[in-house]
Amino acid sequence: MFLVERLNSNATVNTTISRKEEAMSEQNKAVIRRFREQVFNGRELDRIDALVTGDYAYHGPAGLEIRGAAGLKQFLGTYFRAFPDVKTEIQDVFGEGDKVVSRVIGRGTHRGELMGIPPTGKQIAIMVICTNRFEGGKIAEDW
Predict the structure, then answer these.
(1) How confident is the model at residue 14 (pLDDT cuts 50, 70, 90)?
(2) Which CATH number fits domain 2-142: 3.10.450.50, 1.20.120.420, 1.10.3710.10, 3.30.70.240?
């Protein structure tokens, strides 16, 4: 009888943890959607402060590292000036625990200088897969 009660007790604890993790995952996925809609598509850079942690870190290609909300705002501002019509569309979003992975397509027209490259007027489409780690309901890291 004790074993059955103990098993039932553990199952209840595991179910409760699983539900909490699922709720956290859904909340984190909602943050990613808000980030894409408000920051990327809406150009509301001031929203970044509410969506990322104070010690936010972006670990980009070729060793690119961006730190903090201010660094992210500067980085995105550069891209928004180069591609003023860029829009992103989330294709897939998955989450478990403190991590969310999204597959996103970005489309825009190269109308401003980017890293010394003059505007070409060409349209681009790029597929990106992002992994985000969360702390306290905010994005702490991007890969």
Answers:
(1) low
(2) 3.10.450.50
Which residue is listed with tokens 């690119």?
64
* Residue 29: both structure tokens together: 């996925």
| pTM for this prediction | 0.84
Cα distance between residue 71 and residue 68, in whole Å: 5
In 3D, which of 101, 94, 93, 96 has the Cα closest to residue 21?
96
Q: Which two tokens stand for residue 143?
A: 């890969």
The length of the chain in residues reads 143
Tell me the domain boundaries of the chain: 2-142
Residue with tokens 């991007």: 142
The pairing of strands 138-142 and 123-135 is antiparallel
DSSP string, 58-112: EE-GGG-EEEHHHHHHHHHHHHHHHSTT-EEEEEEEEEETTEEEEEEEEEEE--S
